[in-house]
Amino acid sequence: MRADMFQRSENRRYGIIFDAGSSGTRMHIYRWLDSDTARQEGNLKRLQSLPVLETKSKWTKKIHPGISTFGAKPDRVGPDHLEELFKKAHKVIPGDVVEDTPIFLLATAGMRLLPESQCKELLKNICSYARSHTKFQLPDCDVHIQVITGEVEGLYGWVAANYLLGSFDSPKEHDHGKGHHTYGFLDMGGASAQIAFAPNATEAERHANDLKLLRMRTVDGTPTEYKVFTTTWLGFGVNEARKRYIEALQKEGGAVDTKVLQDPCLPTGLSTTTQGDVFLPASKPVNAQKPYLNGTGQFDKCLIKTLPLLEKDHICEDDPCLLSGVHVPAIDFDVNHFVGVSEYWHTTHEIFEEGHKDKAYDFETYQKRVNEFCSQNWETIEKGIGKHEYGKKVDEKTAIEVCFKASWLINILHEGIGIPRVGLESAPSGKTNGTKQVLEKAKEKGYTASFQAVNKIDETEVSWTLGKMGLYASSQIPPSDSSPLPVGFGENVPGIPPDFQYAGAKALLTAHNTTSDTESDYWHDNLFRASSPRRIPGFLLFIVILSVATFLLCGRSRRQRIYLRFTSPSRHVGSSPRKRRFFGGKIPFLRSGSSLGNYERVLEEGPTSDNFELGSIEDASDDVDTSDSSSSSKASGWATPRNGISQSVHESRERFENLGTGHGLGLGIPGNPMERSGLIGRTDSRERIVGMAEGRRSRRGSPKRHKEMGLKPLAED
Question: Residues annotated as region Disordered (predicted)?
Fold first, then answer.
């Protein structure tokens, strides 16, 4: 995956994702160049492509059992389960980027079966443990630690498959006709099965409300959008389908307590319990009251027996439907070419195509090999297992299950989804090609068969986790000025759908040189992060907050006396003005004793005054202008006269209002001053705040009214 790009730069980003399945949790670690480096080093083609993700097999680790087994003891999921994975992650992730490395734990089928209360408590403990025992980036537990639906899992898988196949970055090289260049995705586990694909243009328009809008971003910030259909069938995974198959055999036998059930999906001479435990025919079942299965080795009948499990006869409320009455837009196999992972790969390759990689699925050859294998008696198969004739990964359990699994996959693909039973091509001799010839021919064409089982593409495992991390990496790229829309997916409507799921907790909504809404949402993070240019020293911030709180608690009359003591103009009249105290008589957040009105805060444009002012304090409350202007600066504001003020203050105001252009201008508002209400003010733009940090002074606002005591972040224009 272009690993050479990563060797030329140290500016790398990492991401960790845990696939929390029903049988175990697998950790995946991915790495990519940060967007600035990728833009500097990338050529035109690279800039118009998605970020390049790198992963290695040694960065992956799986532990058992699944986290759902901790439902009754959620406090143990950290020390007894996650600790081992975190230790592995710290060995891979460089220490200086740990705090910038996001971590995701996304649970699938196993957690969906837990009671809601147990599920919530378990997720809460996972997040708490991760935050207290690691420094990985975890800003939002609801986004980073969650149970995902089968539809979302399928969508991530679709992204991963098309990313690895190159259809996103090089659409012309994957033109399937009719303007279509993406591949469909099929996944099957133990409990459920998923499908995800982009329908052709006609079906996409006809079933627009059934599609998901998926948005990604290339390295240069350009958005790319796809409309994808995805759905899941719970109970259609191989293990759950097997359970339904046994139940059907029992009903066919006439009673659930029938002792022997003839099973055409088991090899001849093999007897097992309904749970799959093997025992010899002469021995007694584990529980004599329960039935057991006797293999007859008839694969053609096995296909017939498993066909009703597709539930094709269910009522279809929204036509068209595929399995169990679930709506799926019509699939155009002229342009929709599918890749299948997980059980689609294991069952079609790990036993019958041991050692073969990236080979096309050939229905006739595959079914012939399955039929030959399942027709053998169990004794012959056992000997083959001992000699590793079927591959090193094939043990007794795999051999027992493969006949049922093969029949189930064949029926799902061809009778259920409707994939054509093709794959045979004429050999030069006019005879039907064998498997080797067919697969070599398919490899020359690329993945253009109607169905292709895959495990790895370019040495990278096709996993939905790659799709999730690819979306996250894409979301970290600043968008182009012309399209600030975020990366993620949701309802198929323009803009940002109401159910939009952001690819990252901090989605970049604007270009790199502008201010995003999300960035301001995290203003408090930026203040204290050591790497942030907006970081405020903690001690200074504490002193400022303490000063403001003390002043606000003094009461209005005392605040007025304090202010008049230090700022009253009458103290400066005469030949020997009283020496200013503290900060030259200027405290920017004090309310003027001569006004009840609100003031507009402005930034001075000219050189700074000789008088020293306190550093900036962010306050979104009422603003007031109380400082003198320098001779070259301009100031403006609204002042409301106040009844009952001392004569000296009135004289000072008259004197102040008659000052020349060298001072600020105060404009009185006619009318009854007590009838004025509301807030007149504005907040400074980010650009002006930056200017203030570079040396310009700002007019400070008055404290908030007593009903809103405290500070809150400055609202941006």
Answer: 607-717
User: Which of 147, 174, 190 is the last residue before a domain boundary?
Assistant: 147
Residue 557 lies in a domain: yes
* Distance separating alpha carbons of residues 28 and 40, to the nearest angstrom: 28
Is residue 404 within 8 Å of 265, Cβ to Cβ? yes
Question: Model confidence over 259-295: pLDDT tens digits?
Answer: 789 999 999 999 888 888 876 555 555 555 567 899 9
In a domain, 590, yes or no: yes
Tell me the per-residue pLDDT of 241-253, one tens digit each, with 9 for 90 and over.
999 999 999 888 7
314: CB partners within 8 A, 6+ apart? 321, 324, 325
Residues 6 or more apart from 380 whose CB is under 8 A from it?
none
- Distance (Å, rounded) from C-alpha 156 to C-alpha 468? 5
Q: Are 400 and 272 in contact (CB under 8 A)?
A: yes
**Do the Cβ atoms of 348 and 409 come closer than 8 Å?**
yes
535-543's contacts with Cβ under 8 Å and 24+ in sequence apart are 540/615
Residues 391 and 366: their CA atoms lie apart, in Å, by 16
| Tokens linked to 642 | 């106040």
Q: Which of 124, 147, 170 is the last residue of a domain?
A: 147
Q: Distance between CA 381 and CA 400 in Å, rounded? A: 10
- Residue 653: give the domain boundaries: 538-708
Residues in Cβ contact with 73 at an 8 Å cutoff, skipping those fewer than 6 apart: none
Q: What is the set of active-site residues?
A: 153
Residues 6 or more apart whose Cβ sits within 8 Å of residue 235? 191, 192, 241, 244, 324
